[in-house]
Every structure is written in C-alpha cells, then in structure tokens.
C-alpha cells in the first residue's frame, strides 16, 4: 500500500487519543487513494467511503466532546468545519461513481488538503489552548 498522506510529528496536537484518531483518519484516506489507484469496484469504493464517513463522524464527535468539556472557545468554528467536511464527503461519495477519474482526483486532493490544514491549523488551536490553560488529557 502506498501512502498518499504521511503522518509526521509536526501534526501532533499533543493529545494521545486525538493523534491516534488523526493517524487512523489518514489511514482511511490512504485506503481510499489505493483503492482508486487500483481501480477497485464501485462496491469496494462505496464501502471505503462509508467507513471514512463513519470514522469522520466518530472522530469529530470525540473532538467536539473534548472541546466542550474544557470550554474551548473555538468549538463553534470547529463544529462548522466538521459539518462542512462531512457534507463534502457525502457529495463526493455520490459523484465519485459518475465522472469517476475527474471526481476521484478532486476527492483525493480535497481530503488531503482539508485534513492536513485542519490538523495543522485548526486543531492546533485547541492544542495550544489546552496547553495554555494547563489542561492535561
Ligand atoms: Fe481533528
């Protein structure tokens, strides 16, 4: 399996559970990448998209719960971004099977860009906030 997105320690939000989630999320993106590259069947792709969707929702809920618990002021903004990601994912899941090649490229670059930006910029803010307020998880 080829890695389309690679984890590196600069992505760490210094919360072990969230780092593990982010790694698993990247794993789902890489699974999708490999399935597209190997021209897997629509059934296989649909299953991968479903798994990615389920994992995204699981991860986002866990993250939002953590932010809520510790009164993180950027929660609203995070929820907005999470909803937008899930919406986009659902739209791609539908389109992936129509104009396959073009949509596959768009889906993959969206996933990569969104996710890496989200971890490095948006999630980093709660990481900094927790550190500044001496919140240990
Ligand atoms: Fe996250």
UniProtKB/TrEMBL annotation:
One of its GO terms (molecular function) is metal ion binding. Residues 15-126 form the Hemerythrin-like domain. The keyword Methyltransferase does not apply. InterPro entries: Hemerythrin (IPR050669), Hemerythrin-like (IPR012312), Hemerythrin-like_sf (IPR035938), Hemerythrin_metal-bd (IPR012827). Keywords: Iron, Metal-binding. It comes from the Bacteria. The keyword Iron applies. NCBIfam families: bact_hemeryth, hemeryth_dom. PANTHER family: BACTERIOHEMERYTHRIN (PTHR37164:SF1). Belongs to the hemerythrin family. This is Hemerythrin. It comes from Candidatus Auribacter fodinae.
């Amino acid at each position: 399996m080829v890695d389309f997105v690679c984890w590196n320690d600069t992505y760490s939000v210094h919360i072990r559970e969230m780092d593990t989630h982010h790694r698993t999320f990247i794993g789902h993106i890489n699974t999708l990448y490999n399935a597209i590259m190997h021209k897997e069947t629509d059934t296989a792709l649909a299953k991968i998209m479903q798994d990615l969707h389920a994992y995204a929702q699981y991860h986002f809920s866990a993250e939002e719960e953590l932010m809520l618990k510790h009164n993180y002021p950027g929660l609203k903004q995070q929820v907005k971004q999470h909803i937008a990601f899930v919406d986009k994912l659902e739209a791609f899941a539908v389109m992936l099977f129509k104009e396959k090649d073009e949509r596959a490229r768009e889906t993959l670059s969206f996933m990569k860009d969104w996710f890496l930006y989200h971890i490095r910029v948006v999630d980093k803010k709660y990481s900094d906030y927790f550190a500044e307020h001496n919140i240990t998880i």
